Amino acid sequence: MVSALLCPSCLGCPTSPFSQNRGIRSVIRRTISCRTSSAGSVVVCNAGACRRDFILFGFSSVATVVVPSSVLHASIELDDDVKMALLMDDVNGYSYLYPVESLGKKLAFKWVESRKPERYSSAAPLSPDARQRIVSERVDMINNVIISVSIGPPNLRYLTSSDKNTWTARDVADSVLSDKSALPVATSQRTNESSVLDAHAKEVDGSVYWYYEYLVRKSPTKSAQQPNLFRHNVASTAERAGYLYSVNASALSNKWDSFGPFLEKTISSFRLLPPTEKYVPPYKDPWRFW
């Protein structure tokens, strides 16, 4: 089971879709060995070489993996002197990498899991209509960096067709961003809170992922003194069973040169995973809050 989770074909991670010339080397992995810890419910795995589909920006060392009940974390050393960790959420069926530290830039991330992965029905809404909800979130309060995953149905105002092959990346971005706003649905300012800088689509392992980069116009912090200080965001969205799954990573605009390259790796690593017995689709038991 653990081998299947660690090496799904959907975990292949190419270079960042926002900057293609990072010079990141990919390495082929082929085997995984696992053992059960004394805790019984916890499985500790040593990921060695795995097949091509498990390319995660090029490993340079063995990864140690700890598997709790429904969320998997793995510490991974990357070739460009960046350590990242792998999160796999079985409840919602997705995975992504997040940065831990960079020795070259002398950066260390102090992540706090502000929202542990949970099912859609019990997740916190992003707007009054509760269409899009945060199913997980981690925050580095020292560096003011946020990574979150949200799920919600398409906004028919922007995605009018049920055929996702006709959707443009900009329409997908507008659909997701409009449902993240706290302003009333009828307010025209709702679509003007953010400015999309780039939007494009890419097919990975037969699935389409829409990538977009944008700035949030409203002040990111109460202490922000500069009127031109915004939150710089990168995001990736994929569709499954009539719902949009999105990962979003952001930092303050004046810190983007330092944190942006790592957050772009996070976005490009986002994958929807094959459902397991723990997977809970968003439409299941909408009344359930636990």
Automatic annotation (TrEMBL):
<protein>
    <recommendedName>
        <fullName>PsbP C-terminal domain-containing protein</fullName>
    </recommendedName>
</protein>
<dbReference type="GO" id="GO:0015979">
    <property type="term" value="P:photosynthesis"/>
</dbReference>
<feature type="domain" description="PsbP C-terminal">
    <location>
        <begin position="126"/>
        <end position="271"/>
    </location>
</feature>
<dbReference type="InterPro" id="IPR016123">
    <property type="entry name" value="Mog1/PsbP_a/b/a-sand"/>
</dbReference>
<dbReference type="InterPro" id="IPR002683">
    <property type="entry name" value="PsbP_C"/>
</dbReference>
<dbReference type="GO" id="GO:0005509">
    <property type="term" value="F:calcium ion binding"/>
</dbReference>
<dbReference type="GO" id="GO:0019898">
    <property type="term" value="C:extrinsic component of membrane"/>
</dbReference>
<dbReference type="Pfam" id="PF01789">
    <property type="entry name" value="PsbP"/>
</dbReference>
<dbReference type="GO" id="GO:0009654">
    <property type="term" value="C:photosystem II oxygen evolving complex"/>
</dbReference>
